[in-house]
Specification:
The chain contains 15 helices and 15 strands. A hairpin with a 2-residue loop joins strand 13 and strand 14. The protein is elongated and about 80 Å long. The structure holds iron/sulfur cluster (SF4).
Length: 409
């Protein structure tokens, strides 16, 4: 079972607790997402929270924008499988109500609650209850005086906004803080977080705000979040996608697993890009495999390869894989052929072997079969393919000869 290791040296930060989930310090980087239901709809919101937790969210945020939402939180928090953070905009009284409802964290936007006495009232209550607050600076809603001073939402303006809010918290002796400086522009948010990480050791919550719908939203969010994580910056992350929030939670978890920052829980499906040698429609088989493994919690790397000539070798580090050859699939475990299966059973067999390996391990899987016989079968198909296609399966040499004839005539 392969667990990729990370080469990232994380920037040291203080640690806080959001309920029973630690954020910062040496705690694993966590995934957050936000419900899109009305918080007053208790059953609907809980259903979404459970779906988010199953998809990989460690912490979930719910809006608390009205009394009914705070009342909903009083019923949601005790039944939630993960800690709940209340998102507060404009009304500081909603922050007090959310704490009364039992939430494990708050998110305040300094651009929206501006009266120092209101900020301090919330911070004092949070201090007395031991509830952490995220200072959520957003490039789109900075205090007007900062726009005036800097001319636009610059990284410096965003960092100053966070520091300004921190000063109020300091005044009342409150330091259970995490901070975000989000922007929809990737270069702006990356630079803002870099500068922020130079001036504070509070844990940082990373995100590209209003990233938009996938795939562009996924690309933008990944570009910003991954860049910072690879520099060791960031303690908790959120993808802000215009999509079902379950997609946000999945993306967050997948990113951390891909960077080796969280232990793998899900299948890492790799597939060859296909070429003239491919014996199957690699895209179709890979999609079918992705679908078949979607809800299975198997921490394995699984390969889908288009041909038996190079497939098992190119994916020899995968725990398990399938390579197509002569209308059948060659299953291989750690690069060794173990079985030949009909083409239409490739994905089902892949699932069966993955479940076996997950339960019994790679060695047991290799002992399950006659490796010599399986290797012989694979070699037959490999030789036939090479005979049929030669060593230049893409006919590149022939094409180059034709190109030269055309351009030189
Ligand atoms: S040589 Fe085989 S495994 Fe490699 S890209 Fe082509 S089809 Fe895929």
């Amino acid at each position: 079972m392969q667990v990729s290791s990370s080469l990232v040296d994380r920037r040291p930060t203080r640690q806080i607790s959001v309920g029973d989930v630690k954020v910062g310090g040496d705690a694993p980087i966590t995934v957050q997402s936000m419900t899109i239901t009305k918080t007053a709809d208790v059953e609907g919101t809980l259903q979404q929270i459970y779906a988010l937790a199953a998809a990989g969210a460690d912490i979930v945020r719910c809006t608390c924008n009205e009394t009914e939402a705070a009342e909903g939180l009083a019923q949601i928090v005790p039944r939630s499988p993960v800690p709940i953070i209340a998102d507060i905009h404009h009304q500081y009284k909603m922050a007090l109500a959310a704490m009364e409802a039992g939430v494990q964290g708050l998110r305040l936007n300094p651009g929206n609650i501006r009266k120092p006495e209101h900020i301090k009232a919330v911070a004092s209550e949070a201090r007395d209850r031991g509830i952490p607050i995220r200072i959520g600076v957003n490039a789109g809603s900075l205090d007007p005086s900062l726009y005036e001073k800097y001319g636009s939402a610059t990284p410096e303006a965003m960092v100053e906004s966070a520091q300004h809010e921190m000063a109020y918290f300091d005044e009342v002796g409150f330091d259970l803080i995490k901070i975000s400086v989000k922007a929809s522009s990737v270069p702006l948010m990356v630079e803002a977080y870099r500068q922020l990480s130079e001036v504070t050791d509070h844990p940082l919550h990373l995100g590209v705000t209003e990233a938009g719908p996938p795939p562009a939203g996924l690309v933008k969010a990944t570009a910003g979040i991954a860049t910072l994580l690879m520099e060791g910056i960031g303690d908790t992350i959120r993808y802000s996608l215009t999509a079902d929030p379950v997609e946000e939670a999945k993306a967050g978890r997948q990113l951390l697993e891909a960077l080796g920052l969280r232990e793998r829980k899900n299948v890492d499906l790799i597939a060859c890009p296909s070429c003239g040698r491919a014996e199957v429609d690699v895209i179709e088989v890979a999609n079918k495999a992705m679908e078949a493994f979607a809800d299975k919690k198997l921490p394995l790397q699984i390969a889908v390869m288009g041909c038996v000539v190079n497939g098992p070798g190119e994916a020899r580090d995968a725990d398990l894989g399938i390579a197509a050859g002569n209308k059948r699939g060659h299953l291989f475990v750690k690069g060794q052929n173990v079985a030949v299966v009909p083409e239409d059973e490739m994905v089902d067999q892949l699932v069966e072997w993955a479940e076996f390996i997950n339960e019994h391990g790679v060695d047991a899987a290799l002992e399950r079969v006659d490796l010599v016989k399986a290797a012989r079968e694979a070699e037959k198909d490999r030789a036939k393919l090479l005979d049929d296609q030669g060593s230049d399966a893409n006919q590149a040499t022939e094409k180059i000869v034709e190109i030269r004839k055309t351009t030189r005539s």
